[in-house]
Amino acid sequence: MHHANPEVLIIGGGVAGLVLALEIADHRPVTLLRPASDDRGASRWAQGGIAAVLSPSDDFDAHVADTLVAGDGLCDEAAVRFTVEQGPAAIEWLLSLGVPFTRDTSPDAGYPYHLTREGGHGARRIIHAADATGLAVMETLKRHVADHPAIRVRDDLTAIGLIADAEGRCRGARCLNGDGRLHALLAADTVLATGGASGLYRHTTSPQPASGEGMMMAAELGAELSNLEFQQFHPTCLYDPDGAPFLISEAVRGEGGRLLNVHGERFMPALDPRAELAPRDIVARAIDAEMQRTGSDHVLLDIRHLGEAAIRHHFPTIHAHCASRGLDIARHPIPVVPAAHYSCGGLTTDLNGATTVANLYAIGEVACTGLHGANRMASNSLLECLVYARSCAAALNRQTAPSEGTAPLLENQGGEDEADEGVLAELRERMRRIMSARVAIVRRDAGLEEATAELAELHAALAPLVARCRPTLALASLWHALRLARLTVACAARRRESRGLHFNPDCPGHAPGTPQPSRLHLGDLAHP
Q: EC number(s) per UniProt (predicted)?
């Protein structure tokens, strides 16, 4: 038997994982499991910025109110207020590390850094680093992590499961190295910062989106999941069927971008008084409806009226990227389409990131804190990463000794056969097609029933491979993703209303009474 040690194991190296590592490394030994692929995850591609009350003309109550409206009645107000009130200190911490946020040099600036406005916000409160905020924050955090002697970064291992002791406490992770060999990383406390589940869908805003692997690793230990049906589709992903995904930041609309259909007609003002700055669920559904009405596969985002100088100043990354793909956005509208972007649901956590499994924490998109409710408001995601990484660190730092308990020796799970990578790729593509066709921006009862049956068939095909084949990254990832897809459909089918990101024309209004979050466990999944 291996005894747990005081080490903290962090799985995932996006913004949340990096912040946590820096905040606890002076108090406890840290192992940060950060495969190279984490550099292609969601944090790096966050363009818009971080929402926080920074301007003298803004206040906490206004940010809270805007977040509650966007969450469509399902936010946990205590979590919202906690997050919003911790925001300014989190930004000051990033500034102390040297994150190069864009300064505001105008003579009447009320705050030293430029603040933009995005959908759902009633004020300018988005601090940003041009239009590549995620990259700027990531590079700064990575530099500090690399320089910290108490942080051990492991880029040679990828977690495929968690380890529990006889008392049910989490004691670390089962990992695979590049040669496919199993390794155990044991720890007193384990923190998941593995991202969301946008990879369940065919079209996403990230080149390498997570598919809920962290959520399901925790669910295997009995952790509770919440609100899986609320998958956010970003309204404006660059439409290029032959190219890689690329997000067109919400800040483009915040600075005056207009949505047009393929006939050049503006459609948002007639649908919502906030027009292009309505919350993302409203804008994404409007685009989807306009595409269906006009029989087109995209709409247009027009910023030509801003002028080339302003476009280059505010959106240098977007301008350069589109130019590299043959599109001059100063002279032509940007073809855009909604794409899977952010999971508002995930592992149920408290304000310190603690899950319902002892010694297991979750921060960032893998967690469901109650902040987002039925729809995440723009730029609240990086804020959530910062605030909950810091609160989780404070909780872990207060623990003077690890809990008693032992973790078993790692045993090889699965058989000796080799899973066919082509078969796994085909099953994953089928899963993504089902989710995109039946469980995307608009869901219907009949489609959810079809998705339930079709995903059960995929489960029946994959389960024997899991039982007889040795573990591989592709097999483990697909096994996690497929089960999470089935749980997502189950949540969507149970919610007999339309709320936020979950829109079902068969039950178009809000259900009577106080809205309740969806909560379930892996054991609630009916096997085929």
A: 1.4.3.16
